Protein backbone atom coordinates (compact mmCIF):
# COMPACT_ATOMS: atom_id res chain seq x y z
CA UNK A 1 0.00 0.00 0.00
CA UNK A 2 1.41 3.38 -1.01
CA UNK A 3 1.38 6.63 0.99
CA UNK A 4 -1.24 8.02 -1.42
CA UNK A 5 -3.47 5.00 -0.69
CA UNK A 6 -3.18 5.54 3.07
CA UNK A 7 -4.01 9.25 2.71
CA UNK A 8 -7.02 8.40 0.54
CA UNK A 9 -8.34 6.00 3.20
CA UNK A 10 -7.78 8.60 5.95
CA UNK A 11 -9.53 11.56 4.35
CA UNK A 12 -11.87 9.88 1.87
CA UNK A 13 -10.44 11.53 -1.23
CA UNK A 14 -7.28 11.95 -3.23
CA UNK A 15 -4.98 14.66 -1.91
CA UNK A 16 -2.56 16.28 -4.31
CA UNK A 17 0.34 18.30 -2.98
CA UNK A 18 0.76 20.95 -5.65
CA UNK A 19 3.94 22.97 -5.94
CA UNK A 20 2.96 26.27 -7.49
CA UNK A 21 5.79 28.38 -8.90
CA UNK A 22 6.22 31.83 -7.40
CA UNK A 23 6.30 34.64 -9.90
CA UNK A 24 9.06 37.21 -10.11
CA UNK A 25 12.62 37.24 -8.82
CA UNK A 26 13.61 37.56 -5.15
CA UNK A 27 14.35 41.11 -4.06
CA UNK A 28 16.96 42.51 -1.73
CA UNK A 29 18.14 40.67 1.37
CA UNK A 30 15.43 41.08 4.00
CA UNK A 31 16.91 38.86 6.71
CA UNK A 32 20.59 38.18 7.28
CA UNK A 33 21.75 35.85 10.05
CA UNK A 34 25.51 35.96 10.61
CA UNK A 35 27.44 33.68 12.94
CA UNK A 36 24.67 33.01 15.46
CA UNK A 37 25.63 30.63 18.28
CA UNK A 38 23.71 29.57 21.35
CA UNK A 39 24.65 27.16 24.12
CA UNK A 40 22.32 24.85 25.98
CA UNK A 41 21.20 25.01 29.59
CA UNK A 42 19.29 27.77 31.37
CA UNK A 43 19.73 31.03 29.47
CA UNK A 44 21.54 29.20 26.67
CA UNK A 45 25.01 30.22 27.82
CA UNK A 46 26.66 26.80 28.15
CA UNK A 47 28.73 26.72 24.96
CA UNK A 48 30.20 23.36 25.94
CA UNK A 49 26.86 21.92 24.81
CA UNK A 50 26.11 23.97 21.71
CA UNK A 51 22.58 24.06 20.30
CA UNK A 52 23.44 26.54 17.55
CA UNK A 53 26.95 27.12 16.23
CA UNK A 54 27.93 29.74 13.68
CA UNK A 55 24.58 29.77 11.88
CA UNK A 56 24.50 32.05 8.84
CA UNK A 57 21.82 32.50 6.17
CA UNK A 58 20.29 35.21 3.99
CA UNK A 59 16.62 35.43 3.02
CA UNK A 60 15.52 37.79 0.24
CA UNK A 61 12.21 39.57 -0.16
CA UNK A 62 9.63 37.30 -1.76
CA UNK A 63 11.73 34.20 -1.13
CA UNK A 64 10.76 31.04 0.74
CA UNK A 65 13.50 29.26 2.64
CA UNK A 66 12.69 25.87 4.14
CA UNK A 67 14.47 24.53 7.23
CA UNK A 68 14.50 20.74 7.53
CA UNK A 69 15.92 18.46 10.17
CA UNK A 70 15.10 16.02 12.93
CA UNK A 71 13.87 17.04 16.39
CA UNK A 72 16.66 18.74 18.34
CA UNK A 73 18.69 19.69 15.27
CA UNK A 74 18.32 23.43 15.96
CA UNK A 75 15.53 24.53 13.60
CA UNK A 76 13.16 25.81 16.26
CA UNK A 77 16.02 27.19 18.37
CA UNK A 78 17.23 29.40 15.50
CA UNK A 79 13.67 30.57 14.76
CA UNK A 80 13.20 31.62 18.39
CA UNK A 81 16.52 33.49 18.43
CA UNK A 82 15.61 35.39 15.26
CA UNK A 83 12.22 36.33 16.72
CA UNK A 84 13.63 37.36 20.09
CA UNK A 85 11.99 34.63 22.19
CA UNK A 86 15.46 33.33 23.13
CA UNK A 87 18.81 35.06 23.35
CA UNK A 88 22.07 34.10 21.67
CA UNK A 89 25.69 34.16 22.80
CA UNK A 90 27.26 35.27 19.54
CA UNK A 91 26.17 36.58 16.17
CA UNK A 92 24.37 39.43 14.44
CA UNK A 93 20.98 39.56 12.75
CA UNK A 94 20.03 42.19 10.18
CA UNK A 95 16.42 42.89 9.19
CA UNK A 96 15.85 44.98 6.07
CA UNK A 97 19.48 46.06 6.10
CA UNK A 98 19.49 47.26 9.70
CA UNK A 99 21.32 45.55 12.53
CA UNK A 100 18.57 44.39 14.85
CA UNK A 101 20.03 41.71 17.09
CA UNK A 102 20.22 40.34 19.59
CA UNK A 103 16.58 41.02 20.36
CA UNK A 104 15.79 41.08 24.06
CA UNK A 105 12.16 40.03 23.65
CA UNK A 106 9.52 39.13 21.04
CA UNK A 107 8.33 42.74 21.31
CA UNK A 108 11.67 43.84 19.85
CA UNK A 109 11.34 41.28 17.08
CA UNK A 110 7.84 42.42 16.15
CA UNK A 111 8.93 46.07 16.20
CA UNK A 112 11.75 45.20 13.78
CA UNK A 113 9.34 43.44 11.42
CA UNK A 114 9.67 39.77 12.40
CA UNK A 115 6.64 37.56 13.11
CA UNK A 116 6.56 33.95 14.32
CA UNK A 117 3.89 31.26 14.14
CA UNK A 118 5.28 28.98 16.88
CA UNK A 119 5.56 25.22 16.92
CA UNK A 120 3.03 24.64 19.72
CA UNK A 121 0.02 26.83 19.00
CA UNK A 122 -1.94 25.80 22.10
CA UNK A 123 0.86 26.53 24.55
CA UNK A 124 2.62 29.41 22.78
CA UNK A 125 0.10 31.14 20.51
CA UNK A 126 -3.59 30.60 21.26
CA UNK A 127 -5.50 32.13 24.14
CA UNK A 128 -7.93 29.23 24.04
CA UNK A 129 -10.71 30.73 26.17
CA UNK A 130 -10.72 34.04 24.34
CA UNK A 131 -12.49 34.89 21.12
CA UNK A 132 -11.20 34.51 17.59
CA UNK A 133 -11.42 38.30 17.28
CA UNK A 134 -9.22 38.81 20.35
CA UNK A 135 -6.68 36.21 19.21
CA UNK A 136 -6.39 37.51 15.66
CA UNK A 137 -6.18 41.26 16.22
CA UNK A 138 -4.49 41.71 19.60
CA UNK A 139 -0.99 42.58 18.26
CA UNK A 140 -2.51 44.89 15.61
CA UNK A 141 -4.67 47.01 17.93
CA UNK A 142 -2.08 49.79 18.00
CA UNK A 143 -2.61 50.57 14.32
CA UNK A 144 -6.38 50.09 14.62
CA UNK A 145 -6.71 52.92 17.12
CA UNK A 146 -8.51 56.18 16.45
CA UNK A 147 -7.14 59.34 18.02
CA UNK A 148 -4.72 57.14 19.95
CA UNK A 149 -7.44 56.10 22.39
CA UNK A 150 -10.25 54.06 20.83
CA UNK A 151 -10.24 50.89 18.75
CA UNK A 152 -11.82 51.32 15.34
CA UNK A 153 -14.32 48.45 15.48
CA UNK A 154 -15.15 48.77 11.80
CA UNK A 155 -11.49 48.48 10.76
CA UNK A 156 -10.98 45.56 13.15
CA UNK A 157 -14.00 43.72 11.71
CA UNK A 158 -12.78 44.38 8.16
CA UNK A 159 -9.36 42.94 9.01
CA UNK A 160 -10.95 39.77 10.39
CA UNK A 161 -13.24 39.37 7.39
CA UNK A 162 -10.36 39.87 4.95
CA UNK A 163 -8.24 37.14 6.50
CA UNK A 164 -11.19 34.82 7.04
CA UNK A 165 -11.83 34.93 3.31
CA UNK A 166 -8.17 34.86 2.30
CA UNK A 167 -7.26 31.86 4.48
CA UNK A 168 -10.67 30.18 4.29
CA UNK A 169 -11.13 30.10 8.08
CA UNK A 170 -14.23 28.13 9.08
CA UNK A 171 -15.98 29.79 12.02
CA UNK A 172 -19.52 30.67 13.05
CA UNK A 173 -18.52 34.21 14.01
CA UNK A 174 -15.49 35.99 15.46
CA UNK A 175 -16.89 36.08 19.00
CA UNK A 176 -16.60 32.33 19.64
CA UNK A 177 -13.59 31.01 21.57
CA UNK A 178 -10.66 29.97 19.40
CA UNK A 179 -10.47 26.77 21.45
CA UNK A 180 -13.69 25.56 19.80
CA UNK A 181 -12.08 25.54 16.34
CA UNK A 182 -10.33 22.62 14.68
CA UNK A 183 -6.55 22.53 14.80
CA UNK A 184 -6.28 23.64 11.18
CA UNK A 185 -8.52 26.66 11.71
CA UNK A 186 -6.70 27.61 14.91
CA UNK A 187 -3.48 27.57 12.90
CA UNK A 188 -5.02 29.81 10.26
CA UNK A 189 -6.11 32.33 12.90
CA UNK A 190 -2.57 32.51 14.29
CA UNK A 191 -1.17 32.81 10.78
CA UNK A 192 -3.64 35.63 10.10
CA UNK A 193 -2.51 37.33 13.32
CA UNK A 194 1.08 37.32 12.08
CA UNK A 195 0.25 38.33 8.51
CA UNK A 196 -1.86 41.24 9.77
CA UNK A 197 1.29 42.72 11.32
CA UNK A 198 2.67 43.17 7.78
CA UNK A 199 6.02 41.71 8.81
CA UNK A 200 9.18 41.88 6.76
CA UNK A 201 10.05 38.33 7.80
CA UNK A 202 7.43 35.67 8.51
CA UNK A 203 8.58 32.52 10.34
CA UNK A 204 6.27 29.50 10.40
CA UNK A 205 7.46 26.67 12.66
CA UNK A 206 5.97 23.20 12.07
CA UNK A 207 3.01 24.69 10.19
CA UNK A 208 0.99 21.46 9.85
CA UNK A 209 1.58 19.98 13.30
CA UNK A 210 -1.68 18.39 14.46
CA UNK A 211 -3.47 19.27 11.22
CA UNK A 212 -5.33 16.67 9.16
CA UNK A 213 -3.34 15.67 6.08
CA UNK A 214 -6.29 16.63 3.89
CA UNK A 215 -6.06 20.20 5.12
CA UNK A 216 -2.32 20.60 4.49
CA UNK A 217 -2.69 21.76 0.92
CA UNK A 218 -5.04 24.62 1.83
CA UNK A 219 -4.05 25.50 5.38
CA UNK A 220 -0.37 26.28 4.91
CA UNK A 221 0.29 26.31 1.19
CA UNK A 222 2.12 28.96 -0.81
CA UNK A 223 -1.19 29.95 -2.39
CA UNK A 224 -2.54 31.43 0.88
CA UNK A 225 -0.10 34.33 0.90
CA UNK A 226 -1.58 37.47 -0.64
CA UNK A 227 0.36 39.16 -3.47
CA UNK A 228 1.76 41.87 -1.20
CA UNK A 229 3.20 39.24 1.13
CA UNK A 230 4.91 37.37 -1.70
CA UNK A 231 6.46 40.57 -3.04
CA UNK A 232 7.60 42.23 0.16
CA UNK A 233 8.29 39.55 2.73
CA UNK A 234 11.15 37.12 3.09
CA UNK A 235 8.95 34.14 3.90
CA UNK A 236 11.06 31.86 6.06
CA UNK A 237 9.55 28.48 6.86
CA UNK A 238 10.76 26.05 9.51
CA UNK A 239 9.70 22.58 8.47
CA UNK A 240 9.39 19.11 9.98
CA UNK A 241 8.55 15.53 9.18
CA UNK A 242 6.69 16.08 5.92
CA UNK A 243 8.77 18.92 4.59
CA UNK A 244 8.82 17.45 1.10
CA UNK A 245 5.09 18.16 0.85
CA UNK A 246 5.24 21.71 2.15
CA UNK A 247 8.02 23.40 0.21
CA UNK A 248 6.47 24.67 -3.00
CA UNK A 249 9.76 25.89 -4.50
CA UNK A 250 12.02 27.00 -1.73
CA UNK A 251 15.69 27.03 -1.02
CA UNK A 252 16.21 24.31 1.53
CA UNK A 253 18.49 24.41 4.57
CA UNK A 254 19.06 21.00 6.18
CA UNK A 255 20.17 20.93 9.83
CA UNK A 256 22.50 17.91 10.31
CA UNK A 257 22.33 18.09 14.11
CA UNK A 258 23.26 20.06 17.18
CA UNK A 259 26.40 22.11 16.89
CA UNK A 260 26.86 21.48 13.16
CA UNK A 261 26.48 24.06 10.40
CA UNK A 262 23.38 23.67 8.20
CA UNK A 263 23.74 22.55 4.59
CA UNK A 264 22.03 23.96 1.52
CA UNK A 265 20.20 21.46 -0.69
CA UNK A 266 18.21 21.64 -3.92
CA UNK A 267 14.55 21.30 -2.99
CA UNK A 268 13.97 19.10 -6.01
CA UNK A 269 16.33 16.50 -4.51
CA UNK A 270 14.89 16.66 -1.01
CA UNK A 271 13.33 13.71 0.75
CA UNK A 272 13.14 12.33 4.27
CA UNK A 273 15.94 9.85 3.55
CA UNK A 274 18.28 12.75 2.79
CA UNK A 275 17.55 14.32 6.18
CA UNK A 276 18.25 11.01 7.93
CA UNK A 277 21.52 10.56 6.04
CA UNK A 278 22.72 14.04 6.98
CA UNK A 279 22.07 13.27 10.65
CA UNK A 280 24.35 10.25 10.66
CA UNK A 281 27.61 10.80 12.64
Count the E strands. 12
Calculate the terminal CA-CA distance, rounded to whole Å. 32 Å
The SSE order reads: HEEEHEEHEHHEEHHEHHEHEEH
CATH-derived topology of the largest domain: Rossmann fold
Rg to the nearest angstrom?
19 Å
CATH superfamily of the largest domain: P-loop containing nucleotide triphosphate hydrolases
State the CATH class of the largest domain.
Answer: Alpha Beta
- The count of domains is 2
Q: Report mean pLDDT, rounded to a whole number.
A: 76
Supply the CATH architecture of the largest domain.
Answer: 3-Layer(aba) Sandwich
Q: Name the overall outline.
A: globular
Q: Residue ranges: pLDDT <50 for 5 or more in a row?
A: 221-246, 266-281
Residues in helices, as a percent range: 25-40%
Report strand order across the widest sheet: 6-9-10-3-11-12
Structural class: alpha/beta
Largest sheet: 6 strands, mixed
Number of helices: 11
The amount of beta strand, in percent, is 15-25%
Task: Explain how this protein is built.
- By secondary structure, this protein is α/β, with parallel strands linked by helices.
- The chain has two domains: 25-113 and 201-220 and 236-281, Rossmann fold, CATH 3.40.50; 123-196, no CATH class.
- It is 30% helix and 23% strand.
- The chain has helices at 3-11, 75-83, 106-112, 121-124, 132-137, 153-167, 183-196, 216-219, 227-232, 243-246, 272-278, and strands at residues 29-40, 46-60, 64-68, 90-95, 98-99, 114-117, 145-146, 150-151, 201-205, 234-238, 251-254, 263-265.
- The protein has a six-stranded mixed β-sheet with strand order 6-9-10-3-11-12, with helices on both faces. A four-stranded antiparallel β-sheet has the order 2-1-4-5, with helices on one face. A two-stranded antiparallel sheet has the order 7-8.
- A hairpin with a 2-residue loop joins strand 4 and strand 5 (98-99).
- Helix 6 (153-167) crosses helix 7 (183-196).
- The protein is globular, with a radius of gyration of 19 Å.
- The two termini are 32 Å apart.
- Residues 221-246 and 266-281 have low confidence and may be disordered.
Amino acid sequence: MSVDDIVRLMVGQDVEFVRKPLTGEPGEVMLSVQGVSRGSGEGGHNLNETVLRDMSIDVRAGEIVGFAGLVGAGRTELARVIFGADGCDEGIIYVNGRQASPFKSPRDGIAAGVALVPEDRKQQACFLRHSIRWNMTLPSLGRLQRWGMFIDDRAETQLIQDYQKRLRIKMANDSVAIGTLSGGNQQKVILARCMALKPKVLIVDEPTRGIDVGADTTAIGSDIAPPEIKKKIGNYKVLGKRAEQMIPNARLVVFPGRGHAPQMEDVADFNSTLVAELHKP
